[in-house]
Specification:
- The protein is α/β, with parallel strands linked by helices.
- Helix content is about 25%, strand content about 25%.
- Strands 15-14-13-16-17-18-23 form a seven-stranded parallel sheet, with helices on both faces. A six-stranded antiparallel sheet has the order 1-2-10-7-12-5, with no helix packed on it. The chain has a four-stranded antiparallel sheet with strand order 6-11-8-9.
- Helix 3 crosses helix 10 and helix 11 crosses helix 13.
Length: about 500
């Protein structure tokens, strides 16, 4: 045991409150019991390598509610017995996540710890009797420096997991604590943040959804590259470990979950069908089950690749009721996701879209690829027989928001207004950008080489005559109108975010 006790670094993850974090530690056991390192300066993330000034310990009965306590120093919290739902509320007006709260279930067995930044509210609700918490503190407790806030302050609306019919056990001091606006009267008219969870918020659809619903109302997740203020979450892992879905939902307690992450690399799906199915159906469905169990609505995104584009049946554009017949693993994995999603939650909103483009942080979509190639004076082969209805990501996000507000459920198409092949799409992009940026380096359309799909070197079959009809959407949202490609690019260039075109 002794040799392994010093083997691995503790796992440290960022949190949806800026500066907060969750650490997972190892436990080493044998026939005698177990041994935990609850802090080790050599193993823990350097952001936690603090000079701790005080160590505190509390014991609480079941259904005790402590907080929200605000200290001028940070705290590192561990559950050493029992279980409690630990909450961090951002009281810092100079913080990008001011007004947001998130929670983590800490138990004696789940081996998680939470770091609470200085000047944030902190509290917890106990799930079991004789629950004990250990605090490492960056400062010493002084009542004159504490600024407690009522745990049910409407500015935060913390969703404490108090069972129905139970009255939390609170101290007289916490019961008498004022809302934050009493100390800060300028907050009296401030409305609480929304609780919309965006899965894949670092992508092009997720980023547009954050803007459409308002960043202050959203909590996002990322999978690979860390994004400050977002939560790490992997749909593929979720498919194998359903507890991850419940952990995420109970961290946020969202009212709405938009699942726009997935495995969208079509040829990659063909090579790795298990990953495609994990990320495009079983992972999202697992998350949807957890969301529904906690009363949240679900939005999930599918694709026109559930159709064959005229290869076997009728050609597109397609309506929601048209017969499906996917040609590849990507389309099949999404179709299974549609079926399972609506089976586990008939109130879910499932949105089919296609050829999404627009500003994003990574710069992967077709418009980015085209501009990079042509500005480098490199030729680009573009299929001239794949017909679609290209969709601006901001249009997709706005239509999603409007459908949610209408209480829409079931299957809806959201696409663009123009039906054209990929080569024609590329030429419209070149023409529009050259016109919209007259002082910029001209894009040369002569570098575009039209090729048939069969000669494009793509591993997976593609639907050819595809695209999406919008009749059902327009009947529900008569005020909504998709942008033309030129209008979309004009909007993009006037309001750029994320990675600049050409980089």
């Amino acid at each position: 045991v002794e040799s392994k006790e010093h083997a691995d670094a503790a796992n440290h993850e960022g949190f949806a409150v800026s500066g907060a974090s969750v650490t997972s530690f190892d436990r080493f056991g044998d026939s005698r019991g177990y041994f935990n390192e609850l802090y080790n300066a050599e193993k823990y993330d350097e952001s936690l390598n603090q000079s701790w000034k005080q160590v505190s310990f509390s014991s609480s009965q079941k259904h005790a509610l402590r907080g929200l306590h605000c200290s001028p120093y940070g705290k590192f919290i561990t559950c050493v017995r029992g279980a409690f739902y630990d909450v961090i509320a951002d009281f810092r007006e100079d913080s990008p996540t001011f007004g947001r709260w998130c929670g983590v279930l800490l138990t004696e067995n789940n081996k998680k710890q939470v770091y609470v930044p200085a000047r944030c509210g902190h509290g917890f609700f106990t799930i079991e009797d004789d629950t004990c918490a250990l605090y490492l503190q960056e400062g010493c407790f002084n009542p004159a420096n504490e600024a407690d806030t009522h745990p049910f302050d409407p500015l935060f609306n913390v969703a404490w997991p108090v069972p129905e019919g139970v009255t939390p056990v609170m101290s007289p001091k916490d019961t008498a604590a004022p809302p934050l606006s009493v100390r800060r009267p300028h907050l009296c008219t401030r409305t609480p943040r929304g609780r919309i969870l965006i899965i894949g918020a670092s992508g092009q659809v997720g980023g547009a959804l954050m803007d459409a619903f308002g960043p202050q109302n959203c909590i996002g997740t990322y999978c690979g590259t860390k994004v400050e203020g977002m939560i790490q979450f992997d749909l593929a892992q979720c498919a194998m470990q359903p507890q991850l879905a419940d952990d995420l939902i109970t961290t946020v307690y969202p009212t709405l979950v938009c699942i726009c992450a997935g495995f969208t690399w079509v040829d990659g799906c063909e090579r790795d069908a298990p990953k495609a199915n994990a990320m495009n159906n079983s992972g999202p469905v697992t998350l949807a089950k957890a969301a529904k169990a906690h009363g949240a609505r679900v939005v999930w995104y599918s694709t026109d690749y559930v159709f064959d584009g005229g290869v076997k049946g009728a050609a597109g554009p397609y309506g929601e009721e048209d017969a499906v017949s996917p040609l590849n693993v990507y389309g099949s994995s999404k179709l299974k996701g549609e079926e399972e999603m609506l089976k586990v939650d008939d109130s879910a909103l499932v949105i089919r879209t296609n050829v999404v483009f627009g500003p994003e942080g990574v710069g992967k979509n077709f418009v980015y690829q085209l501009v990079r190639k042509l500005r480098a004076n490199e030729p680009m082969n573009v299929p001239n027989d794949q017909v679609n209805t290209p969709t601006y990501n901001r249009d997709l996000a706005e239509a999603t928001r409007l459908l949610v507000e209408k209480g829409a459920r079931g299957l809806f198409n959201i696409g663009g207004s123009e039906v054209l092949d990929r080569l024609a799409f590329a030429k419209v992009i070149v023409e529009a950008i050259n016109k919209l940026e007259p002082a910029g380096a001209k894009l040369d359309a002569a570098l575009l080489n039209g090729v048939t799909t069969s000669n494009a070197g793509q591993a997976a079959l593609r639907p050819l005559a595809s695209g999406l009809k919008l009749d059902k959407l327009k009947a529900v949202l008569p005020e909504w109108k998709p942008s033309t490609i030129h209008e979309a690019l004009e909007n993009w260039l006037k309001q750029p975010i994320g990675k600049p075109l050409g980089e």
